[in-house]
Amino acid sequence: MAKSNPGQFVREVRQEVSKVTWPTRKETMITTLMVFIMALLAALFFFFADQILSWVVRLIIGLGA
Prior knowledge:
By secondary structure, the protein is an all-alpha fold. The protein has a domain at 24-65. The chain has helices at 6-18, 25-61. 0% of the residues are buried.
């Protein structure tokens, strides 16, 4: 593995960073909002699934009557 000097490394890093397509502020806000919405939907789904399974187990065991 060839060693390069630090100056060459920094130039290569800056060149690669300039190729990155950064999201706009609007895209970042929309994506963040979508993540929160999906997390909320997942939490609600698992809450209700847990409640239903709990009710079924109590019904089977006989504690629900």
